[in-house]
Fold:
Amino acid sequence: MKSSQLEKYEVFQAMNNRHSVRKYKPGLTIPKEELEELVEIASTAPSAWNLQHWRFLIIDDQEKKQELLPIAYNQDQIVDSSAVVVLLGDIEAGREASSVYQPLVEKGYMTEEIKDTLVGQIERAYERGKETSFARDAAHLNASLAAMQFMLAAKTKGYDTCPIGGFKRDELIDACNIPDRYVPIMLMTLGTAAKEAHGSERKPVNEVTIYNSF
Structure:
């Protein structure tokens, strides 16, 4: 099998085998190098203007996870998992535009003029968006793309995950000193399943697919 075919096969396997795990083997540690490898591959996700709106706040200290437990409505997976990843979205991502594009200029992929044009467009979009949900919507959309890649990468490496949307956001912000610039999108528990998660049914393709118009 060719390398490209194998890579596709592994991706499909990860997609099919990934299930939300809520019971983990406690006391297992994931090395920092592996955690950062997961973040690195997750960060290859696409994002609007390549602003990379995501930030990964990794909580692997047991005392800190215990502090997080009531914030996540006392779900045991918070303390039993190897780590809890707090996915944050950057609502001021427009400020990153110049630093994102400058390396492209230095490598000759983009002219200084094009960079300045793009940076201006982005800054104006975020300035106009202050009166709307533009920045928050962009943070949620783009960070969520990275979250899915993180979970698939974790499964490929033999770890299990569970995305959690139910938690006390204001209390989380206070507990982790999260700056105003970032909004909590979701929690993701990460670790080794104590028992295999059961699969779940999916709607057939013909029920979720619409061509051209309703």
